[in-house]
Amino acid sequence: MSVVGPALRAEWRRVVSTRLWWALLIPVVALAVLVNLFGSLLGEGLGDAGDLPVLPASIAFTLTLTAVFAAVYGTVAAAGEFRHRTVTTAYLTAGGRGRVLVGKLVAGGCVGVLYAVVAVTTGVVAGVLGQGAGRVPGTGALVGVAVVGVAVAALWGVLGAAVGVLLANQVGALVVLLVYLQVGELVLAAVMNNSGSAALARLTPYLPGNAGDVAIYDFPARALAGPDLADQVVEQLAGVTAPPPWWGALSVLAGWAALAAVLAWTVADRRDVT
Amino acid sequence: MDDGSGRITVHDLTKQFGSVSAVAGLDLTVEPGGVTGFLGPNGSGKTTTLRMILGLVTPTSGEARINGMRYAELDAPGRVVGAVLEAQGFHPARSGRAHLRVAAAALGVPDRRVDEVLGLVGLADPAGRAVGGWSLGMKQRLALATALLGDPRVLVLDEPANGLDPEGIAWLREFLRGFARQGRTVLVSSHLLAEVEQGVDHLVVIDAGRCVYQGRLERLRGTGQARVLVRCPDPLRLAQALAAAGVVEIDTLHDGRLGVAGVDAARVGDVALAAGVAVHGLVEERVDLEQMFLQLVSEGRR
Ligand SMILES: Nc1ncnc2c1ncn2[C@@H]1O[C@H](COP(=O)(O)OP(=O)(O)OP(=O)(O)O)[C@@H](O)[C@H]1O
Ligand SMILES: [Mg+2]
């Protein structure tokens, strides 16, 4: 702690002295309100489905979106150091590039946690208002999805920061991240699912974006469909084949984050700062 | 071990950027207690050298040491060396004070240091405003303030006078002198000799990544040939008289004057009087260091 303590304190000051963290928090809140208000109204419309735990599902969807914003924050903040050429001073004052990287990864993770906590809080409020007070089914699944979603957002914040340091080009890193998450992985998973190879199809839940989604959808799928059909629901929601349980998927995502961090460290340690 | 000397040593330092040889076998020593000017034309490798000293660029071969250690081996490098590398290295939306507070936290120095250095560089007033709206000179001062935060033993500055007004340049010169007088080390780069001429004790001149001069500024001045410029209606006869008196280094300037090297004005006047040649003007030429600098650089290219 004493080694990275000053770097973390410096990173905290970096985060709060620019607007990025709350600029990205606005769409997170807006989406949380819209998704859960709409989701719960949809649940109302299903007639006696008032008993169905719709809220955990709409919160889960909110959290998969929130994770993207966490990743975007991590990437933009980390690559911004290079864009604004502040990385020179960061390296010189931190006394080592490793400490700067750790600061960036921790900051990405913490902002991810913040986004997910805010998304769950506003989402639940919006959902309860939409459904009418006093009917909040699926409390257990709700707690489960919230905890897993916070962890996923934190990991995506870390992963995003690692990508930002790795590529060191703000626009480039952001484009790579978003194109991969929004298009690339969908195409990749579709190809793998339809390749005819069962082995390849079974790998789809291990792609980073899917791993996060699988982890998040686990609890609500169980609450909605029961233990027997839960896997099929997750397969539909996340677009994967043979999903692992939430803790398995979370470990896979953590593995991806660790891999990205190691790559970022390897590259950043050797990179000339000219 | 960290010898605490404040000395910078560079040995056989080389940096190759692809096919570009930015620094080629550079050797130099910067001693504490004085200001060392690091001079070279554009693209000669000054910035690359300074960044290698600071561990930001990895040398292709050779090494740079501060206090006998490589930068990465220093215990608290941010408190040993302060660096002014670029005036543009600021997030435009952050205030000057916020920038310094970030650096202070990373260095582990108390926050009151922030206001001290802001006062020192004359930025106490605008400190709360976003740096995006600052002038280049103000950013240079902020970069200097950042370098001073850790109260370093060694100061490395890359063209710190860029963007400063004449008053600012004079202030910086005095500041660096005072800093060096405390027994600390100052290495300051420039591509203009005139900029550092008044403020430096030692000079390192590089060209194309190689050292072409290293030594005291006076020594460089001393090696320059001072001339006496003579305006005279009959230059030919004066030249003959001078030659007869053993003075052979005589040029004819484009304005018709004679340039006589290796003698002082009194001797030229005496010879002219003895030869009965009228003299209308007699000036001792000042050694033009800028000229010498250019000469050094062009010699280095040959
Ligand atoms: N990152 C880089 N990639 C490729 N070439 C580089 C890089 N940085 C510097 N160079 C080249 O190395 C040489 C030395 O550059 P450097 O910036 O060190 O010179 P300088 O003396 O600081 O010049 P100036 O007075 O213009 O600041 C130049 O030819 C430059 O083009
Ligand atoms: Mg330069």
Number of domains of chain A: 1
Which CATH class of the largest domain in chain B applies here? Alpha Beta
Rg of chain B over CA atoms, rounded to whole Å, is 24 Å
Oligomer state equals: heterodimer
Instruction: Sketch the major β-sheet of chain B.
Output: 6 strands, mixed
Coarse morphology of chain B: elongated
The CATH architecture of the largest domain in chain B? 3-Layer(aba) Sandwich
**Backbone structural class of chain B:** alpha/beta
Question: What report would you give on this structure?
Answer:
The complex is a heterodimer of chains A (274) and B (302). Chain A is mainly alpha-helical. Chain A has one domain. In chain A, 82% of the residues lie in helices and 0% in strands. The longest helix of chain A has 35 residues. By secondary structure, chain B is an alpha/beta fold. Chain B has two domains: 213 residues, 3-Layer(aba) Sandwich (Rossmann fold); 62 residues, Alpha-Beta Plaits, CATH 3.30.70.100. Helices cover 36% and strands 25% of the residues of chain B. Chain B is built from eleven helices and 13 strands. A six-stranded mixed β-sheet of chain B has the order 5-6-7-3-8-9, sandwiched between helices. A four-stranded antiparallel β-sheet of chain B has the order 11-12-10-13, with helices on one face. A three-stranded antiparallel β-sheet of chain B has the order 2-1-4, with helices on one face. In chain B, helix 6 links the parallel strand 6 and strand 7. In chain B, helix 3 crosses helix 4. The longest helix of chain B has 16 residues. Chain B starts with 7 loop residues before the first strand and ends with a helix. The site of magnesium ion (MG) has 3 residues of chain B, from helix 1.
How would you summarize the topology of this molecule?
The complex is a heterodimer of chains A (274) and B (302).
Chain A: H1 5-16, H2 20-45, H3 54-83, H4 87-94, H5 97-131, H6 139-167, H7 170-193, H8 198-202, H9 208-238, H10 246-270
Helix pairs in contact in A: 1-5, 2-3, 2-5, 3-5, 3-6, 3-7, 3-9, 5-6, 5-10, 6-7, 6-9, 6-10, 9-10
Chain B: E1 8-17, E2 20-30, E3 35-39, H1 46-53, E4 61-66, H2 77-80, E5 81-84, H3 96-107, H4 112-120, H5 136-148, E6 154-158, H6 166-181, E7 185-190, H7 193-197, E8 202-207, E9 210-216, H8 217-223, E10 227-231, H9 235-244, E11 250-252, E12 258-261, H10 265-275, E13 281-284, H11 289-301
Parallel strand pairs in B: 3-7, 3-8, 5-6, 6-7
Antiparallel strand pairs in B: 1-2, 1-4, 8-9, 10-12, 10-13, 11-12
The complex binds adenosine-5'-triphosphate and magnesium ion.
